[in-house]
Amino acid sequence: MAWNWGFVKRNIVSSVCVSFLQAEKMSLTVADAVDYKGFPADKSRTDGWVPAALSLGIEICERLSTMGIAVNLVTYLGGTMHLPSATSANVVTDFMGTSFLLCLLGGFLADSYLGRYRTIAIFASVQMLGTCLLAVSTKLPQLRPPPCQDTEVTQCQQANSFQMGILYLSLYLIALGTGGLKSSVSGFGTDQFDEKDAKEKAQMSYFFSRFFFVISIGTLMAVTVLVYIQDEVGRSWGYGICSASMFLALVIFFSGTKRYRYKKCSGSPVVHICQVVSAASGKRKGKLPSDISLLYEDLPEAVRIHHTDQFRFLDKASVVTEDDYSHNGSFIANPWKLCPVTRVEEVKKMIRLLPIWATTILFWTTYAQMITFSVEQATTMERTIGNFQIPAGSLTVFFVGAILISLAVYDRFIIPLWKKWKGKPGFTNLQMIAIGLFLSAMGMAAAAIVEVKRLSVAKEHSETTQLPITVFYLIPQFFLVGSGEGFIYTGQLDFFITQSPKGMKTMSTGLFLTTLSLGFFFSSLLVSIVKVATGSGGRQGWLGENINKGRLDCFYGLLAALSFINFGLFLLSAAWFRRKTVRQAPEMEIIVKESTIEEKC
Hints:
The chain crosses the membrane at residues 91-110, 116-136, 211-230, 236-254, 353-370, 390-410, 430-450, 470-490, 511-535, 555-577. By secondary structure, the protein is mainly alpha-helical.
């Protein structure tokens, strides 16, 4: 009997030890991540903060390249390639618009096929190739027209189709690289942290609080140091630095390969949305059951989103019909023909975001003027401080400075006062967006007033290439629109992530980035329309070949009017969204409770 009791004790001790060792082993691994060999990620070998910091180098160099090119490209197109003012502006806005539109492609490939690591590596290499080609195209005399000293651009020989073709090839390689990697860098950074670990959870919050700051640092370097090198040393040197810095960032990025944590591809939300639309379209002639409990649902109760009456035409995607059964009577749930109610409700939530999405596009149209026509204005104005001449593209430093100042003031002064007065930690995301839209509208109004003053000076000194009016008159428009971006960027990012379904966070980030893209494209469209409408019949028009002989003030006034109208539409959309959200708050509780960390990211 004693021997049996000893045997039992040994078994118990052995079982406890095994359980303890298994628990300890599990605590040293990250449940939903693997290492570079495909094994569960070991915390002792895959650190959190250091690998995340390595990916920030890619983001800094991406901003350095994209903004360093964008803010000063209009002067190169006009001064070296001899393109008209409006055409130069459209080339820049099309380039920026394409860059942000391709973020959807990058996000789709990362989620569905490549994963974030491969996506960043591939598209960062593409961007490096594009900047290298751009450096070559600005260096070789054969790839640009002969120099011209004439004050009238129309009298100079424009770049031919081959020269413009090489320029476009390099620009759109850069756009492809930017769009492909931009949607993956922040997500790959968060992959390096374990949300279930208290220490790493705090580190992840620190990472995100510094991410936008890092972007701003890259932009600040672009509009100061890089623009100065382009103007004073040479374009090819400036773009060559972009290519070399991206190469260095890639080397640093690859150096962390063995320390990274990798998440498996989970499938793209775009496919899920297409499945719901396809299923609903295929059953558009069918009837909805009177009892909503008859609609198809296959997800556990804990993660379900309850049915809502809004956009009921989509509910037909969840109607079970005879086509959902095979010939032998077995049930077949084809996701392209039958979708669960939760999947349909996720799509409904995305649709509810669209009015807010649409009314934020125009802000990025006004933003586009800061890196196109405002830079052209600066080239005609007095820019010297003592013996130093400020590069025209570097005037956007006031734009970046406004972003940093507005965010600092909001964080240090407004939030404490608002919390003391209203009992809330700062403005809501919709209030942040509203402030940004209002400031941008005021910025365009200020730009129109300043342009009236500049044009009056231009009429008095029509023979001079540099007008006797200080460039610091442009500071109000840069500062107002820059402060607007500080509020609207953070407000948009917070809104689209926190208000989207849990399974569509990546999709909502892509939706946010498309507002930037469409804003730039709308700027190009608006410039073309205004040019045709005001410049027909041989007239100069508002946006002619020479901005000193045009009416840029009228164009800015038009944008100011559109911005104020858009601001009113946003307030209506925000009121509609809040009313719908309040009514449907119980349906959102599960998502909010289960994805608090993910929503903040």
